[in-house]
Structures are given as C-alpha cells and as structure tokens.
Amino acid sequence: MADAQAPASGSKDPMYELMYIINPVLNEDQTKDIVQRVTQYLSENGAAVEHVEENGSQRLAYPIEKKRNGFYVVANFRLPKAANGGLLKIERALIINDDIMRHMVLRYDAKMERHYQAQRAGKDLPKIAPPVQRA
Question: What is the pLDDT of residues 76-123, one digit of tens each?
Fold first, then answer.
C-alpha cells in the first residue's frame, strides 16, 4: 500500500512504527480490508499515517495459535502528545481484533527517525564497520 498521507516535514510529534501480523487463513480481500481498517482507525484516533508497507506472508519464528505463517504489515505514523490515550485506544483495538495475531508498537528516537527519513528519501545509509578483533 502506498503512502496514506504526506509526511509532515519538521513535525515535532513523536514518530511510531506499528507492526502487526494478520491471520494467514484469510483471503486477499479480507487481508486488504483489515489493513485499510487499521489505517483508518489510526487516522480517526489522531495519528498522521505516513507510510504503510505490506510485507506479505512470512514464516513465523514459532507457532502462534497453531499457525506457522502470518501476513506482516508495518505502518509508520505520527501521534501528537496531546492525543490523550490515542495509543492506548489503538492497542486495545488491535488486541480485540481476532484476525490480528500479534502486534508491536515502537516509538522512534532521534536516530531511528533520521534512519527512517534517509531510507524514505532513497539516500545511501552509512555503512557500519565490523568490530575490530585484536589479539
């Protein structure tokens, strides 16, 4: 799925990343509908959705509800600090939804946000040298 909304340049609102896993037994239309509903729910609760990426079906590290695969989705959004309880409402809705097997919300720090912006701009990311082994 493409950008849902243009990123607010210079925005002071905290940046978040939501990763969730959708039940793999659903068909493609049901999966698209869940992604659309989650994105809409984020917007309704004060979040400015910047990017939604569907990573497709992937094998899980361990079985969840006797399932070995899941459909992964990552959404990046900004949520104003003034949106009291917005993040709690979002997490509560994800827990209640039976079609979402797992979810995780990360709040970006400054370094993670710079990396995200560079990645979205298509810039070459700095290479990290491996640690030097000394005898």
Answer: 999 988 776 888 999 999 999 999 999 999 999 988 888 888 888 887
Find residue 133's DSSP bridge partners: none
Amino acid at 37: R
SS3 127: coil
Token representation of residue 20: 């969730």
The H-assigned helical ranges of the chain are 28-44, 86-96, 110-121
Q: What's the CA angle centered on 45, arms 88 and 72, to 5 degrees?
A: 70
| C-alpha–C-alpha distance, residues 17 and 48, integer Å | 12
Answer whether 11's CB lies under 8 Å from 108's CB: no
The token pair that represents 121 in the structure block: 């701009």
Q: What is the DSSP string of 81-95?
A: TTSTTHHHHHHHHHH
69 three-class SS? strand
